[in-house]
């Protein structure tokens, strides 16, 4: 049985994800939702999506959808993801998971209460190099991990109105792009990281 996905937020990253659906077995892109019906309809037409909704509420309550990919600006993640869980839908939430730690805790708790899948869309966790690194670390092949150094470079022209730069939309390196680096140590890739303060 195929999982029918809905995308909340027809922006840049949602377009990239939509183009990859044909490569994912047992998954289909069934719907898109936006605060703007015309934007949802345009996205649906561009990507061959059968259902377009002019509100996130209509998307998350749609009987045509099993799971929601939340691709809106960060401040909207929590509300949409909670509504989706309350509607019985699994959620995949784009980085950054929520705008606050309290919001992340609330979302995880709701998913546990509803017994539904809920995950941050941290695709780097599944890259073959990261999977191999986790295996090497778990096997002790590289010895005891005592630290992690990671760099991320992005070349995007500055636009103060763009969600990547506008703090009101959750912009800034720490939220918009910076989450990838700490995830290397937080997601289990380096789960045996030694607390250097204890080893001195």
Describe this structure in words.
The radius of gyration is 18 Å and the shape is globular. It folds into 2 domains: 3-121, NAD(P)-binding Rossmann-like Domain (Rossmann fold, 3-Layer(aba) Sandwich); 124-199, no CATH class. Strands 3-2-1-4-5-6 form a 6-stranded parallel sheet. The chain is built from 9 helices and 6 strands, in the order βαβαβαβαβαβαααα. By secondary structure, the protein is an alpha/beta fold. Helix 4 (74-86) runs parallel beside helix 5 (101-114).
Summarize the structure.
The chain is of the alpha/beta class and 200 residues long. It contains nine helices and six strands, in the order βαβαβαβαβαβαααα.
Q: Reading side by side through the largest sheet, how are the strands ordered?
A: 3-2-1-4-5-6
The assigned CATH architecture of the largest domain is 3-Layer(aba) Sandwich
Number of E-state strands: 6
Strand content: 5-15%
What is the alpha-carbon Rg in Å?
18 Å
The SSE string, one letter per element, is EHEHEHEHEHEHHHH
Task: Return residue spans where pLDDT drops below 50 for at least 5 consecutive residues.
Answer: 187-200
**Class of the largest domain in CATH?**
Alpha Beta
**CATH topology grouping of the largest domain:** Rossmann fold
The domain tally reads 2
Q: How would a crystallographer describe the biggest sheet? A: 6 strands, parallel
Mean pLDDT: 84
Q: Can you count the helices? A: 9
Distance between the termini: 54 Å
What structural class do you assign from the helix and strand content? alpha/beta
CATH superfamily of the largest domain: NAD(P)-binding Rossmann-like Domain
């Amino acid at each position: 049985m195929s999982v029918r996905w809905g995308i909340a937020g027809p922006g840049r990253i949602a377009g990239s994800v939509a183009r990859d659906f044909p490569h994912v077995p047992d998954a289909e892109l069934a719907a898109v939702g936006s605060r703007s019906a015309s934007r949802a309809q345009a996205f649906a037409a561009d990507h061959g999506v059968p259902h377009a909704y002019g509100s996130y509420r209509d998307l998350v309550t749609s009987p045509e959808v099993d799971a929601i990919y939340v691709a809106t600006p960060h401040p909207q993640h929590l509300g949409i993801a909670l509504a989706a869980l309350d509607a019985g839908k699994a959620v995949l939430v784009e980085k950054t998971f929520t705008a606050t730690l309290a919001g992340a805790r609330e979302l995880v708790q709701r998913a546990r209460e509803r017994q539904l899948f809920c995950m941050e869309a941290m695709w780097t966790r599944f890259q073959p190099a990261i999977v191999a690194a986790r295996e090497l670390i778990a096997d002790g092949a590289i010895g005891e991990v005592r630290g992690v150094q990671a760099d991320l470079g992005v070349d995007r022209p500055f636009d103060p109105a763009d969600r990547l730069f506008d703090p009101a939309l959750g912009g800034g390196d720490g939220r918009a792009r910076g989450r990838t680096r700490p995830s290397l140590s937080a997601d289990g890739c380096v789960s045996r990281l030694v607390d250097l303060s204890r080893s001195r």
